[in-house]
């Protein structure tokens, strides 16, 4: 399970810190939280607006309506609370950084395990093909056409690649849709792992008859 991004009460203080930088409308606050957490946390409107309303009740936040947009601003009382809780805010910032790193590690490990499994399957398939090539007696012309077998195996390989692609793509999209982070480093490692798998296939084919 991914670690919680904000502990109880931390989001309230973090909202004050965002508004201390500049007045914001609700969507802007949600976007700022998404950006600050590297996509780890994308809160819903149902999470943000009740907290803003509570901060307003406490006199820490005020709002003004500009057409259809409601702009929230921090009050002097809100700034005073922020100043009195600087250490708490620093702890929240550290916690956010830790959460992003932990979730990035989870994605990275998942990708690495998937690529390791693919390389193992490819190596086993290549080994089986070498054994079959060495043990199969010569056949009469036209019997069990090797080109038919090759096409069948190519179809199997295509299906395996497509299944892998669909699995990884689904995992990545689901992770991001749930608010998970997807750092550039993870994508770079995925690209490197796929490149390594492609080289493994090339090397396996190089050792087969007819290559």
Describe the structure.
By secondary structure, this protein is mostly helical. It has 2 domains: 10-84, Winged helix-like DNA-binding domain superfamily/Winged helix DNA-binding domain (Arc Repressor Mutant, subunit A), CATH 1.10.10; 103-206, no CATH class. Helices cover 71% and strands 7% of the residues. The chain contains 7 helices and 3 strands; from the N terminus they run αβααββαααα. A hairpin with a 2-residue loop joins strand 2 (61-66) and strand 3. Helix 5 runs antiparallel to helix 6 and helix 5 (86-135) packs parallel to helix 7 (184-206). The radius of gyration is 27 Å and the shape is elongated. The mean pLDDT is 78.
What is the total tally of β strands? 3
The stretches of 5 or more residues where confidence is low (pLDDT under 50) are none
User: In sequence order, what are the helices and strands, one letter per element?
Assistant: HEHHEEHHHH
Q: How many domain modules?
A: 2
General shape: elongated
Radius of gyration: 27 Å
Helix content: over 70%
Our measurement of the CA-to-CA distance between the termini, rounded to an integer number of angstroms, reads 46 Å
Count of alpha and pi helical runs: 7
Sheet with most strands: 3 strands, antiparallel
Mean pLDDT: 78
- Beta strand %: 5-15%
Quickly give the structural class. Answer: mainly alpha
List the strand order in the largest sheet: 1-3-2
Fold blueprint:
Blueprint: H1 10-21, E1 24-25, H2 26-36, H3 45-57, E2 61-66, E3 69-74, H4 76-84, H5 86-135, H6 146-177, H7 184-206
Antiparallel strand pairs: 1-3, 2-3
Helix pairs in contact: 5-6, 5-7
Organism: Microbacterium bovistercoris
Protein name: PadR family transcriptional regulator
Domain Transcription regulator PadR N-terminal: 15-83
């Amino acid at each position: 399970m991914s670690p919680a991004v904000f502990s109880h009460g931390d989001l309230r203080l973090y909202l004050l810190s965002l508004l201390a930088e500049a007045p914001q409308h609700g969507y802007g606050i949600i976007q700022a939280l998404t950006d600050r957490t590297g996509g780890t946390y994308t809160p819903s409107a149902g999470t943000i607006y009740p907290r803003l309303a509570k901060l307003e009740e406490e006199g820490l936040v005020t709002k003004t309506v500009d057409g259809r947009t409601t702009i929230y601003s921090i009050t002097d009382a809100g700034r005073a609370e922020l100043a009195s809780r600087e250490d708490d805010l620093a702890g929240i910032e550290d916690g956010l950084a830790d959460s992003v790193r932990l979730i990035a590690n989870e994605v990275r490990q998942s990708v690495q395990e998937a690529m390791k499994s693919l390389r193992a399957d490819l190596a086993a398939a290549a080994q089986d093909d070498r054994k079959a090539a060495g043990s199969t007696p010569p056949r009469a012309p036209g019997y069990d056409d090797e080109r038919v077998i090759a096409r069948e195996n190519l179809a199997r390989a295509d299906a395996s690649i497509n299944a892998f692609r669909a699995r990884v793509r689904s995992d990545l999209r689901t992770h991001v849709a749930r608010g998970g982070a997807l750092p550039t480093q993870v994508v770079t490692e995925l690209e490197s792992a796929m490149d390594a798998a492609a080289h493994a296939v090339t090397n396996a084919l190089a050792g087969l008859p007819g290559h």
